[in-house]
Amino acid sequence: MDDKKSAPNPDKSKALAAALAQIEKQFGKGSVMRMEDGAVVEEVQVVSTGSLGLDIALGVGGLPRGRVVEIYGPESSGKTTLTLQTIAEMQKLGGTCAFIDAEHALDVGYAQKLGINLSELLISQPDTGEQALEITDALVRSGGVDLIVVDSVAALTPRAEIEGDMGDSLPGLQARLMSQALRKLTGSINRTNTLVIFINQIRMKIGVMFGNPETTTGGNALKFYASVRLDIRRTGSIKSGDEVIGNETKVKVVKNKIAPPFKEAHFDILYGEGTSREGEILDLGSDAKIVEKSGAWYSYNGERIGQGKDNARTYLKERPELAREIENKVRASLGVPLLGEIKSDSGDKAAEKAAAKASKAAAKAEEPV
């Protein structure tokens, strides 16, 4: 009996083969395939967030391409900074990026400070939520854009709300808009390998006595369609004397479909600079026992590199080769791919000086006597 049950039914196999042939004829080759063929399972391509700690917490070294990502948190917590850094990293890889500025609040000067090439950045400031999502859909379908940031879901105001009067009750309009848009976008995003990041704001549920009263805007569709959801919070201030120069930031990976979720990253965001790479190297280095911390002093290989985090950060900023060496040791200890060495400019400058001297000597030799 067991042998009869386990034996394949030739009629079922023929029927399946005929169905697969019909599907491929109608929808194209590769519409349905077996997992063992290896055509479905591919390595996830990622782009760095500009934060070493967050890249490690995400489990794959950055945000995944071909997926929807949601970044949410309170005001002034670093949401836009994180997305602008991701744009800068994508541009370093040669990618094309677009910023859908529904809030009409993009600080162009700050974007430049974070390393964004504005001449290569596509910017749109749409009038309505429908227009913003149609532009996003068109850019995704083109296949020519690698990263799109929508800032923010809360600012995607439906056309009916804009054309209506103040005080009109229009329940669920934005949620329906987001649900419809994401149904259309998801397939195109995967096919074109485009990373789409939605920035979202936090609202409070009224009358919640127990549990978390916080919720995000735009309904539940984005929560389901997002492969990664990041909750970013400001946990404290960074001071230089009495002056506040930045924020201590915590990011929790609330949802992650490509690696284990619920990991956290802690880093500093400095005003006008973005994420402090050197600060992260010091924190992660001391956690991995690569950088020794004794009291307020930081040391590396028995040599002191600064008293206090600010001084140690400045020391590493002035010595990028040393910072890269420590970072690669941290990456090796955590099993993250290493970065290439930073080439010193001293040799290039010496060569330039030698070439300049040679050209001057040649010019003098050619002068008539």
Automatic annotation (TrEMBL):
Transmembrane feature ranges: none
**Entry keyword Chloroplast:** no
Q: Which UniProt keywords apply?
A: ATP-binding, Cytoplasm, DNA damage, DNA recombination, DNA repair, DNA-binding, Nucleotide-binding, SOS response
Report the subcellular localization: Cytoplasm
Q: Give the residue ranges for region: Disordered.
A: 343-369
Q: Where is the composition biased (Basic and acidic residues)?
A: 343-355
* Gene Ontology terms: biological process: DNA recombination; DNA repair; SOS response
Q: Which SMART domains match?
A: AAA
Give the RecA family profile domain ranges.
Answer: 43-202, 207-280
The entry's cellular-component GO terms read:
cytosol
Q: Which residues bind ATP?
A: G73, P74, E75, S76, S77, G78, K79, T80
Gene Ontology MF annotations: ATP binding; ATP-dependent DNA damage sensor activity; damaged DNA binding; single-stranded DNA binding
Family per similarity comment: Belongs to the RecA family.
Q: What does this protein do?
A: Can catalyze the hydrolysis of ATP in the presence of single-stranded DNA, the ATP-dependent uptake of single-stranded DNA by duplex DNA, and the ATP-dependent hybridization of homologous single-stranded DNAs. It interacts with LexA causing its activation and leading to its autocatalytic cleavage.
Question: How is this protein named in the record?
Answer: Protein RecA
Report the source organism.
Collimonas fungivorans
